[in-house]
C-alpha cells in the first residue's frame, strides 16, 4: 500500500494545503448549524493525484486540526493519517471516481434538509434562489445503509437525473452536496438547509407555488453565467 512519502513533492505540498482547507471548512458546518456532535464530514479531492482528504471518524469538531485530517486514495484506502477516516469515506470516493468534475463533497444531518429526507420527498422549487442554485427541486435519493459505497452510488445515480443540482437528500439519512472544491460543497450544504427550512415554512402556510421549468432554466443560466464577479 502506498504512503504519502511515495508521492512527489508537489502532491505532498497540495496535501498540506488541502488538509488546512478541509479542517477549516468543518468550522463552517458548525457556524451554519449544519451538524451536531461528530455527525457530518467534508472532503476534497486533490488535483495532483488520485487522492482525497477527509474528516476522521467520530472526532468532535473542536478537536479537528489539519494534522488529524485523513488522506486516502479514491478507493478509500488510507495513505496518510493517524486516525480512521470517516464512515462515509467509501461513498465520497465513489462520487469522485464517477463524477470527475467534482472536487468537493459534504455530508450533514442539518435539521430541515434531513426532515425532508425522512419524508422521501423532493424539496419543491418554489423560490428563485432554488432555480439559481439547484436548477430545480432538491432531489431525494434512495435509502442506503452506511459504511459501504452504496450511499455514494445513490448520490451519483440521483444527480445524473438532476444535473444542475449540487445536492441530494438521501432518504432517511440526510443531504450530500458536491462542488468544484470543498468550499463550494459547503456552500451548497448551507443553501440546502436554507431552502429546506423556508420551503417547510411555506408548506405550513399553504400550497407551494412551484416555478415553471422554463423560468427555472433562465434563473439558473443567469446565476451560473452572469451573477457575481468574473
UniProtKB/TrEMBL annotation:
It catalyses: L-ribulose 5-phosphate = D-xylulose 5-phosphate. Gene3D superfamilies: Class II aldolase/adducin N-terminal domain. Keywords: Metal-binding, Zinc. Its EC number is 5.1.3.4. Pfam families: Aldolase_II. Signal peptide: none annotated. It comes from the Bacteria. InterPro entries: Aldolase_class_II_sugar_metab (IPR050197), Aldolase_II/adducin_N (IPR001303), Aldolase_II/adducin_N_sf (IPR036409). Residues 20-200 form the Class II aldolase/adducin N-terminal domain. Its cofactor is Zn(2+). Belongs to the aldolase class II family. AraD/FucA subfamily. This is L-ribulose-5-phosphate 4-epimerase. It comes from Bifidobacterium favimelis. The lineage of its organism: Bacteria, Bacillati, Actinomycetota, Actinomycetes, Bifidobacteriales.
Amino acid at each position: 500500500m502506498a504512503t504519502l512519502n511515495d508521492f512527489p513533492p508537489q502532491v505532498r505540498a497540495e496535501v498540506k494545503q488541502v488538509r488546512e482547507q478541509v479542517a477549516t471548512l468543518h468550522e463552517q458546518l458548525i457556524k451554519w448549524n449544519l451538524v451536531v456532535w461528530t455527525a457530518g464530514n467534508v472532503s476534497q479531492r486533490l488535483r495532483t493525484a488520485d487522492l482525497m482528504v477527509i474528516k476522521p471518524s467520530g472526532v468532535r469538531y473542536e478537536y479537528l486540526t489539519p494534522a488529524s485530517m485523513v488522506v486516502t486514495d479514491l478507493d478509500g484506502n488510507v495513505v496518510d493519517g493517524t486516525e480512521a477516516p470517516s464512515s462515509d469515506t467509501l461513498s465520497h470516493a465513489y462520487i469522485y471516481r464517477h463524477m470527475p468534475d467534482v472536487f468537493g463533497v459534504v455530508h450533514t444531518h442539518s435539521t430541515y434538509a434531513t426532515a425532508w429526507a425522512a419524508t422521501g420527498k423532493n424539496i419543491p422549487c418554489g423560490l428563485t434562489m432554488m432555480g439559481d442554485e439547484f436548477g430545480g427541486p432538491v432531489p431525494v435519493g434512495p435509502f442506503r445503509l452506511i459504511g459501504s459505497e452504496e450511499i455514494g452510488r445513490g448520490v451519483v445515480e440521483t444527480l445524473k437525473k438532476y444535473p444542475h443540482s449540487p445536492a441530494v437528500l438521501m432518504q432517511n439519512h440526510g443531504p450530500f452536496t458536491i462542488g468544484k472544491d470543498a468550499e463550494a460543497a459547503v456552500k451548497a450544504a448551507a443553501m440546502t438547509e436554507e431552502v429546506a427550512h423556508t420551503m417547510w415554512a411555506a408548506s405550513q402556510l399553504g400550497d407551494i407555488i412551484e416555478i415553471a421549468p422554463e423560468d427555472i432554466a433562465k434563473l439558473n443560466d443567469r446565476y451560473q453565467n452572469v451573477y457575481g464577479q468574473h
